[in-house]
Design goal:
Largest interface: A-B, 55 and 44 residues
Number of strands of chain A: 0
Number of domains of chain A: 2
Structural class of chain B: alpha+beta
Number of helices of chain B: 8
Shape of chain A: elongated
Order of helices and strands of chain A: HHHHHHHHHH
Radius of gyration of chain B: 29 Å
Strand content of chain A: under 5%
Helix content of chain A: 55-70%
Strand content of chain B: 15-25%
Structural class of chain A: mainly alpha
CATH superfamily of the largest domain in chain A: Winged helix-like DNA-binding domain superfamily/Winged helix DNA-binding domain
Shape of chain B: elongated
Oligomer: heterodimer
CATH class of the largest domain in chain A: Mainly Alpha
CATH architecture of the largest domain in chain A: Orthogonal Bundle
Number of strands of chain B: 8
Helix content of chain B: 40-55%
Radius of gyration of chain A: 20 Å
Distance between the termini of chain A: 59 Å
Strand order of the largest sheet of chain B: 2-3-4-6-5-8
Distance between the termini of chain B: 75 Å
Chain lengths: 200, 254
């Protein structure tokens, strides 16, 4: 019991954070989180001491989160299917370039838009982004937790990021945070091409 | 990095810091200055997005305490259950023997055991309990359901009734419970994140008898007589004073 409590205390914030960001509704997320901890305790005798508690706990929690999303019949909001390679091709997008140039200011302007955009991702995409960006797990660790190949983790990450950035770009354009057509066009790579900054 | 696909994957892996320092150095040495700049800007944007996504989502202390309390309660229940296991086996064997007696050739005149059993187990979570509701989660709908089923009771808003109770109570709905005469109703609540039920049945009915039986076996919290009804609270979370939501409470029986 003491060891279980110690491990729970150590990881509770990140596990909770994962649940509330993966499940659509905070109440349902808290239920899933509590249910996962109780399930972990019930199966504590099966946990091999000295192995990775964090990964073991994530497996249980992710299962609960997927079930919770399925039971509440919530599916990602519609975004046109994002092809593989969409994240890489963002590099050619001028609006995205403007966002990258002054990302601090852009993010300040976004407010809660990041959270809203994040809800449009699938559960798998959100899981991969949170485990990688939030908890700094490696592709292999994420693959082990989710029970999928590392290549699929990369695909989820790339698609999730592409969706997220596309949503933010659309928001930026609609709110006039970036201009869609630059006033001054110069050849690529020329510093003068940074004319269209955020909030100009 | 021969194909565009390889290059894209390497870009992703670099952004995700999956390279060893040597690999990262080699990858970055192949990038043009503009690409290197873009990569560093991508790092920054990714950091900012994650910071924004993760802010303000620490596990609340109260939730943490409640979960650990449930773990401890579960633990002590399990310990008690393990101690009681031999006795349970003996009792189970006795029940089998007694149940079989009426079918024995000689017969002893025993009649079949009454089918009234204890109340059904509580839902494991608030979400599960909410799904059991037969009405929307609003007071008017629940009161209408009660009246449609012959229960003339109104509901008070618990959070207004006892603002300093330390409990956060939300109404989830109401449903018909299991009883032989259909007299048992279950009002469903979320109390501090835990599923809690309020059983209500007219006195001298099968529903009321079931409440009494469940109370006698220690399966309920407090119970009370409310006008012509017997009511009781069920759930692992101690929902103190929840009975007061049914007014007027004329007598608390404990």
């Amino acid at each position: 019991m003491e060891e279980f409590t110690r491990q729970f205390e150590r990881y509770r914030h990140e596990l909770y954070r994962f649940a509330v960001k993966t499940v659509w509704d905070r109440n349902v997320a808290e239920d899933a989180f509590a249910s996962a901890v109780l399930a972990a305790w019930e199966n504590w005798h099966k946990f091999e001491q000295g192995t990775n508690f964090r990964a073991w706990m994530y497996k249980i929690l992710i299962n609960k989160c997927f079930v919770a999303n399925r039971e509440t019949k919530r599916t990602p909001l519609p975004i046109d299917d994002v092809p593989e390679g969409a994240f890489a091709s963002l590099g050619q997008d001028r609006t995205y370039g403007y966002i990258l140039e002054d990302s601090e200011r852009f993010m300040e302007s976004c407010g809660d838009e990041v959270h809203r955009a994040f809800t449009k991702l699938s559960t798998a995409e959100r899981s991969c982004i949170l485990l990688r960006g939030g908890e700094k797990l490696s592709y292999n660790e994420i693959a082990e937790i989710l029970g999928i190949p590392a290549g699929t983790v990369m695909t989820h990450l790339a698609r999730g990021r592409a969706k997220l950035r596309t949503e933010l770009m659309t928001y930026a354009q609609n709110r006039g945070l970036v201009r869609q057509k630059p006033r001054l066009l110069t050849k690529p790579g020329d510093p003068g091409n940074r004319e269209q900054r955020l909030g100009e | 990095m021969n194909s565009k696909e390889d290059r894209d994957q390497a870009w992703m892996a670099s952004l995700d810091r999956q390279f060893t320092p040597a690999e990262a150095l080699e990858f970055e040495s192949r990038l043009s200055p503009a690409e290197q700049e873009r990569l560093s800007r991508e790092y920054r944007l990714e950091e900012l997005i994650m910071e924004r996504l993760l802010d303000g989502s620490e596990c609340p202390e109260a939730l943490s305490r409640r979960i650990l309390l449930q773990v401890r309660n579960g633990s002590s229940r399990w310990t008690r259950a393990k101690k009681a296991l031999p006795w349970f086996a003996v009792a189970a064997a006795a029940v089998i023997v007694v149940s079989a007696l009426p079918w024995m050739p000689t017969g002893f005149g025993f009649r079949e055991a009454d089918s009234t059993a204890a109340l059904p187990p509580m839902a494991a979570s608030v979400a599960e309990l909410a799904r059991e509701s037969q009405t929307p989660a609003d007071r008017a709908a629940v009161e209408r359901f009660l009246q449609d089923h012959g229960v003339q009771l109104a509901l008070a808003d618990f959070n207004q009734l006892l603002p300093d109770s330390g409990h956060d109570v939300t109404l989830l709905g109401v449903r018909k419970g299991v009883s032989n005469d259909g007299s048992l109703l279950e009002i469903l609540f979320n109390c501090c994140g835990f599923p809690v039920k309020l059983y209500v049945a007219p006195r001298d009915t099968d529903g009321a008898l079931r409440i009494e039986q469940a109370h006698a076996s220690g399966g309920l919290q407090e119970r009370a007589i409310v006008a012509d009804y017997l009511a009781a609270v069920a759930g692992s979370h101690p929902a103190d004073n929840l009975l007061r939501v049914l007014q007027p409470v004329s007598e608390i029986l404990g």
